[in-house]
Amino acid sequence: MELLAALAGSFFLYKTNAAKISKQLVGFLWITFIVEVIAAYAPIAYFSDYKYFSFVKDTVFEDHKWLYNMYSLFSAVFLTYYFHQHLRNIKWKLILQVTLIAFSVAAIINLIFSGVFFVSDAQFTLLIGTLILIMSIIMFYFELLQSDLLLQLKRILPMYISVGVMVFSLCVTPVDIFSEYFSEGNDSFVVLRNNVYLYTNIFMYTTFIIGFIICSKEKTSY
Length: 222
Known about the structure:
- By secondary structure, the chain is mainly α.
- Helix content is 71%, strand content 0%.
- The protein has one domain (2-215).
- The two termini are 24 Å apart.
């Protein structure tokens, strides 16, 4: 689904005179796909009994938490920045910008000194990053309600992105917060976590793909 979304985004760029932020969004989707491909080394190593990628066994890189902790921060910052770029209220943009900078600094410090970087999900990044991201989406929605763009929602790409991201964040973050229970001994939580990730990913990237396809019919993207 991530690959299809990235390809749909590339098609959108090919068909339209896309804004710079839309190009950055497509770049973000390709980075996401690349991160997932790289992160596959951990399960491949584990389930092959370290026949493959044996050099990571008994090292801090045995798990891919380190990669996803960096990506979680990058993702929260970029997506918040994406909606920040679509705001027109100068005061709101400034508040969001200052909040985003403060969060980035605090999250980096947390990753360095909390000891979670290699061993578990960074709860601070997940929780605060999600709250700031949702705040940026709410600001975006509020501005839409005050504009004439409500009549053109079908042709507004950020609308599709916001729906997908909002549903994904609200469903996945609570599960991630309790990620320490994700173990072989807790089958119920394992099944729940896997299903939440599966269906929310399908929903989010399907929403992205639909948005790219519909908006590719416009000569200039919003």
